[in-house]
Design goal:
Blueprint lengths: L9 E5 L3 H12 L3 E5 L3 H11 L2 E3 L13 E4 L8 H8 L4 E3 H10 L8 E6 L4 H14 L1 H4 L3 E5 L5 H5 L7 E5 L2 H5 L8 E4 L7 H4 L2 H8 L7 E5 L3 H10 L4 E5 L9 E4 L2 E4 L4 E5 L8 H16 L4 H10 L8 E6 L2 E5 L6 H8 L9
Helix pairs in contact: 5-12, 5-13
């Protein structure tokens, strides 16, 4: 275990939902004294019965009378919520579930450190993370390193860290909330796909939202979405500490990943990574996601053959630009996960003769 990273003795977990329950369970298993603060009495009873941890109402937390070493918050809790504001006033560090998972991994609680590859952005995170995981899984035969998607894509980081057989490479989809509550996370490679106004009520401003997303750039390699001026500016503002590269749907810039003659290529002179045709989802959004995934995989050391094979094998998840039927030359596409204007614009771009329902 890294001697500079110590497990906290007493922790308050804010929120007893899926994220909070997972944090409480792993901390209790590691011998930490855990208390969960949740406003639902039924949830508190379930936590006490199932996990054997203390569970109290948020208004009953008394930081002055308690000796908490750390507060771990569920990602949806706003920074200005009364409990977290009181924790900050008491000069207690507040972190999120992802930061906790990162620290436990750095402390080698689950064995030698994993390789973290982080994907974030306003839209396309799940698709890009799925593509990236397929590429890194295709690379397993060459490296012997097992890869898995985790985070917001549906697999808990704690589940992935404790998995048997061991997962060596974590392809992690992260939200702006999770990144907000992370302060030491330094992935091997991190990318921000795009930025548009989203969750502004939570973050307080677009600039604050962009700053939190840009934390993905603070690792060894930052992969910048070159076609989005907001992403480019966020990288300038946060000043990545490691290598900087990029992806684009056009010709690659400064040795990054791009598209030439319907081929995804990297570098100058360009080296082919995969075909840019037949990608799911169809249109420019799918091409950009594929270029981002290829750029992260390439920066992480995946072979060109693995990148090509992984992308060819990838199938988009349901409701994310999935072709559900085709008849008489007409494709019926389910893109019902496009829940904001930026996502809809990306979904429609590059398609012709569209009837939008």
């Amino acid at each position: 275990m890294d001697s500079t990273l110590k497990l906290p003795r007493k922790v308050l977990v804010a929120g007893g939902g899926v994220s909070g329950r997972g944090c409480a369970a792993i901390l209790a298993e590691l011998g930490t004294d855990v208390t969960v603060a949740d406003g639902n009495a039924t949830t508190r009873k379930q936590l006490a019965d199932d996990l054997g941890v203390a569970a109290i109402a948020p208004e009953d937390v008394d930081f002055a009378a308690s000796s908490y070493d750390l507060v771990v918050t569920s990602p949806g809790w706003r920074p200005n919520s009364p409990l977290l504001a009181a924790a900050s006033a008491a000069r207690l560090e507040v972190i999120g579930d992802v930061e906790l998972a990162w620290r436990l991994d750095r402390a080698e609680v689950f064995g030698p450190n994993r390789t973290w590859l982080v994907v974030t952005g306003t839209n396309g995170k799940t698709t890009t993370t799925g593509m990236l995981a397929a590429m890194m899984q295709a690379n397993e035969a060459e490296t012997g390193l097992r890869a898995s998607a985790a985070g917001n894509i549906g697999v808990s980081l704690f589940t992935a860290l404790a998995a048997t057989p061991r997962v060596d490479v974590l392809c992690v989809e992260l939200s702006s909330f999770q990144l907000h509550w992370s302060n030491t996370l330094r992935p091997r490679v991190g990318t921000v796909l795009n930025l548009a106004e989203d969750h502004i009520d939570w973050h307080g401003s677009f600039d604050a939202y962009a700053r939190d997303k840009a934390k993905a750039f603070l690792g060894e390699v930052a992969v910048i979405g070159q076609d989005d001026p907001h992403v480019v500016q966020s990288a300038i503002d946060i000043r990545p500490r490691g290598i900087v590269t990029s992806f684009t749907a056009g010709e690659p810039q400064d040795g990054g990943v791009g598209v030439i003659d319907n081929e995804i290529v990297v570098g100058n002179p360009p080296t082919r990574l995969a075909s840019a045709q037949g990608i799911e989802p169809a249109g420019i959004a799918g091409v950009l996601d594929a270029c981002a995934a290829a750029a992260v995989a390439h920066a992480a050391g995946a072979s060109t053959e693995s990148i090509s094979a992984g992308l060819a094998a990838y199938r988009v998840d349901a409701h994310r630009g999935e072709v559900v039927h085709e008849a008489d030359g007409v494709k019926f596409i389910d893109n019902s996960k496009a829940t904001n204007p930026h996502a809809v614009e990306a979904a429609l771009a590059g398609l012709s003769d569209v009837i939008w329902i």
